Amino acid sequence: MVQIVRKDCAAGLWGHLKDQFADLKATVMDTLCCRTNPFVWHFYFKKFLSLSKT
User: Fold this and answer.
1) pLDDT at 2
2) CA-CA distance, 8 to 38, in Å (whole number)?
3) Which DSSP category does 28 fall into?
């Protein structure tokens, strides 16, 4: 980070931080989607099977 400030001043540091948080947001959203979908699909699959038994 010190090298970024020396090279590009505060604007370069701001751009670096923005990029880091954008990556963090994408990583968190991807993880949530990957972990949530199997449970949701499993619930609806069980629901469908219970409806088809009647």
Assistant:
1) 64
2) 44
3) H
